[in-house]
Amino acid sequence: MRTGFIFLGCLSVCAFCCAQSKDTVMLKSVTVYGLPDEKYLAGSSLILLDSSLKSNERSRNLGEILSLQLPIYFRNYGNGMLSSISMRGTSPQHTSVLWNGVNISSFSLGQADFSILPAAAFDEIKIHEGAGSARFGSGAFGGTVLLNSTAPSQINSISFSQDAGSFGRYFSSVNGSWSANRWGFKTKLYNLTSENNFPVLITGERQPHAAFRQSGILQDVEYRWSTAKTLSLHYWYHDADRQIQPTIGQYNSVDNQQDRNQRLSIRYQSHSRLGLLSLNSGYVNDVIVYDGSASTVIRWISSARHEFVFLKTFHAQTGAEWNHIIGNIPNYQNGHAQEDRYDFTSSIQKNITDRISIAVNLRQPVVSGFNAPFLPYFGTEYAILKSINNDLKIRGSISKNYRVPTLNDRYWQNAGDKNLLPETSRAGEFGIDYRFKTFEIVNSFFAQKVNDWIQWVPEQNGNYHPQNIEQVLAEGVEVKLSLRQKINDVTIIPMLTYQFTKSITTQAPAADQYTIGKQLIYTPRQTASGYIQVIWRKFSSDISAQYNGTRFTDAGNTDAYALPSFALFNASIGKVWLSNQHRFDFRFSVKNIFNLDYQLYASRAMPGRNYNLQFTYQLNSKTN
Amino acid sequence: MKINFKSSLLIALAASFSIIGCNKSSDPVKGKYQTGVLVANQGNFGSANGDVTYYNTSTSLAEQTIYKNVNGSFSGDVLQSITLDGDVGYLVLNGSDKIEIVDNNTFKLNNTFSDPKLDKPQYLQVINGKAYISVWGPYDSNFDLVKSYLLVMDTKTLQLVDTITTDLGVENLLYNGKYLFASNNNFGGSSTVSVIDPSIDKRVNQFTLAAGPAGMVLDANNKLWVVTTGTFAGNDGKLFRVNPSTFAIEQTINLSANPGNSLGITPDKKTLYYSVNSLIYKITIDATTASTSSFINATDVVTLNTLAVNPTNGDIYVGDALNYSTAGSVYVYGSDGTKKTSFAAGITPSQIVFK
Predict the structure, then answer these.
(1) Least-confidence region, from A148-157, A253-262, B227-236
(2) In chain A, which residues have their Cβ closer than 8 Å to the Cβ of B323?
(3) B326–A247: do the CB atoms touch at under 8 Å?
(4) How distant, in Å, are the alpha carbons of A282, A320, A341, B2 from that of A325?
(5) CB B290 within 8 A of CB B284
(6) In chain B, which residue's Cα lies nearest the Cα of A289?
(7) In this predicted complex, what is the ipTM?
(8) Fewer beta carbons within 10 angstroms: which end of chain A, N or C?
């Protein structure tokens, strides 16, 4: 009983650290009810991205850094161009991206463009691998990317970072963090420009028409009435302008695209003896201007969530969310679409013993046009071994998931269908995790069957319209090995991940029977990534690699059109100087060391060997 | 070194075989693709994997991606058409906005033509050393065409010498020895055929037919036939017989359907072929109404994307694009309508050329 209480207490503290608006003020008499997502996702894995690698790669986009640390494939339509994620054999619309709890995937396209998610914008990046609609909502089939702002630090600081790289690439950022009394502020500014005129290895010519710029500002404000009541605000404006990189061998391209994304998340949290109450409001304004034609999607989001403990040992969350969506898109009927979506959720977590835990998440969405399915997630973990040096854990989860058709699927002029069914999936995962001291091995076996998979199908007159026509089975295995070894004053941190995924069409309409049993396009069967970091005194270096197997680009898996497998290598070396309140960082990186010609999307060139210099200066306030 | 030796041995062997081949033929062999059937495969839009399938009618063997096999990479984005002029082949790429100029017997790339004015090119016709290229031109912000035209290029210098404005969405070209006819389709948004006099490079006429002029042929009487594809799902496609000198419409035949873009004609030039979905119809040049029953029901074909007639034996070739996102096929029917054979093609076969 007493150990249970202590364990719960640990969890509570942990919860407080990991909660999205982190409160660093020590709690006195208030019991904490919030548990981190990890606990409610028993049975599956939630990965926190390595912060030093993220910091080294701060001028890169999220796609570039995720593909180095996880077996995730990104189909990039060129360098710095549209970057679409594929996790665990699913398509880009099957990974949801949440920023401070707000879904920031495009509601018109149904996917996030990872090229305009700069790593510099996020304090904390977490990846939930596998299905999780019950917890994260529509589209969480292959996984969920969680991007969070952390609370302003008690130490005031300002930092400046500058990168200069090959092909006219420059990145600048300024970060400031300040807190006083009940207030905390944090500001980030960034700007990235690239001429992006790299030599195309296959032709020897310079890549034309691929320059881009991205700028943005993030502002976090936190106000603490007391240790128990917090109001936090997160605002992010991202502005991107790019020339659309044409296919190899196209010379007179004129297409360009601007993206303007505003995101606001406001959260009020209150702890009381009844539990933890969170009230959230959000606003998202996404504008895409393609060749001068603007498409806008605006969303207003409100949600409330209460977390509490019942029967002493059951942790529970219950909540409701409302999304009001307005699409102003010229290609829609009357150029306009509007709808409301509601979600009701409950989650329960319990530690049955100190070795066994279970978690249940339930979600009932309400969407106009169809009866949304009820989405349960059930997960459990059992610690077979649990000691200081040895942990052995088995885990498993089963879930039902869904994806609401995109606004384009529902409202496109002369094609969209409001009564299109949502895609649904049934997913299962089983895992064995083992730790010996600092060596960890995480094994996952997963399978997911997606029904009513939406495809835009050509009609006889050549027009396309979306239909719920396919069934896809994605199954595979994933292994992650990591170690942190200290030898005298050298620390070595190797990490390796590998995934084998078979993702095939199992049902298709009569005209598409040739797709049965074929691997989905741009879904490599084998993916691996890894790195070795070596830290010695004030020096650090790393070598990272990324491998992707053959990728088919046509639904019939024709070898002639497949992109060959490749392994890409990068390296960097850096040094830090610390002096009182000052910190200087310097880093030199080489990307694509072996000057490999590779493509992530058919006929879109990627740069050969290239270099980057990074310099960072940080000034901290004096610690008391 | 060992590998090099082996491969040079192979090359030597291959060379000796081709010498044997030479000796058998009365004509000197200009290249592997000197005679046979070429299929232009558009490829996936945006993936620049348009390429050519070669079908050898005597061996019944097809070779895929011959351009890539010879030149190392695909020809480009959306290979719309191939035009043969002597030993030269012009590959018109409407996504890459360029024309790849090859030796059409070897498919070795000799030149690339690209120009800011070459915006979504479609078809090409060579007349007296000048190439006339039908060009859709730019889109406005709603992806509607704003001006379409023919570009006139000197085939020796590869310099543009003229621009001739047409109606929107100009596509197919036909030269009857006097005039160049250019059909303006624009998905049924245009209804005209532009008439160009190549001796002065001017548009001398533009006559109106019905929504969506597309494929054109000349019949045994040298009359011009044009198929119109009609309005969106309007079942209002038509066939027109036009006097090529006065541009008067001599016959209008309602098809009560939306036919495909292709119009074929038998070697004797007395019977026309057109398609509606996977049904192939035939109609004689003296007919006044369309047949209500089809000539061939191409049940194997999912998406009939193009149709062409072998001018030497009258075989009917149809390209099946499936769902436009994987390698398609070509089906061959005899002039009696029976299925003879089929062979694999690339993604979205869009034009079949006989040489």
Answers:
(1) A148-157
(2) 457-458, 511-512, 555
(3) no
(4) 12, 16, 8, 67
(5) no
(6) B141
(7) 0.86
(8) C
